[in-house]
Design brief:
single chain; about 400 residues; alpha/beta; Rossmann fold; Argininosuccinate synthetase, chain A, domain 2; 5-stranded parallel β-sheet; 5-stranded antiparallel β-sheet; 14 helices; 14 strands; elongated; binds arginine
Amino acid sequence: MVKEKCVLAYSGGLDTSVCIKYLEIIHNLDVITVTVDCGQNEDLRKIESRAMEIGSLKHYNINAIPEFAENYITRCIKANGLYQNKYPLATALARPLIAKNVVEIANKENANFISHGCTGKGNDQIRFDITIRSLNPNLRIIAPIRDLNLTRDKEIQFAKENNIPINTEVKKYSIDENLWGRSIEGGELENPYTEPPPECFKYVKLDNPEVGYLEIKFEDGIPVRVDGNKMELVELINYLNSKVGAHGVGIIDHMEDRVIGIKSREIYESPAASILIEAHQDLEKLVLTSHELRFKHLVDQQWSWMAYSGLWQDPLMYDLDKFIDATQTRVTGMVKIRLQNGSMRVVGRRSDFSLYNNALATYSSDSVFDQTLAKGFVEFWGLQSITAKSLAITLNKKENKGEEQ
Ligand code: ARG
């Protein structure tokens, strides 16, 4: 009898390696593996041969780095995407992209089943499942680690029993890496009071006292030039990860609320993402009106929440992006940043669309602002607040008198 096909999102790690065998043994399926490269800097050929060795019938390696930069990271920069004002969403952004690519292979292979290695405790299952079901509702999702309530120990035991090659050296941390950043969890980091040791980090060098400067040019909200050199976004991010990281900038230590309700301690390393969002946000403050800024801040927060919580395919995401794009046509200009020993500070910004008017702002006698007009403005601006406050004082006095009698 011909077996049915299942396409598995395969990273090469323990979870997804165990999945290959589970799908084969427990579900009696033919397994096709897909590794989607979002910039995780791993040897795809090694991953492919591991998949085939364990029992995959066919393997696909997909280079999704350009697509990641173009359709995901650019949107994150324009939206100043930070979950809970901290996390630049590296893992969160890659999941819908991986899911989309795996669905495309499943369609091509006429598979009825699709699988991923997510646990039932995290956000990634949400991002995978919702993207898959939005793009092809006919695919049946199998998530062996979640479905069988597997723990790491059980997985290792199963791997040994089934001759699945696993790294014998026990990994200290659970790390998810892509072009936009690294997410580091587990081990001693599960104690929120324990400081992450330097060995967690790949780009960020601690204790470098040197001062460095960066100049980033944005066009329509997108960074296009750094330190005078025009670069494609992928190259630009790689350049910033090493330059900014060398000055100790880009570590985020975050108490995070997962969608599922668990609070978790997360360490992120994302020098490029951190600096680009900081610079972009600063430039917006130069060129957008205060009304635009106030409203866009709400939109940005909603955007970040939707991206974090797996709702990348929701129509609202498209609507928010339309608004965000409309604001970005003036986010063109230059931002200068000073880096030193773990700190980053914007020290200059300029733009042809700048709303800053020196003749209005200056305290010198060159000022063209007629301050005598301000008196009337203040009078009206505080009108309701002042009335409400004096009413409250009056009522309060009456009440107090009443009590005394
Ligand atoms: N908490 C982050 C998120 O939900 C990162 C998860 C990272 N996963 C990992 N295996 N380290 O996006």
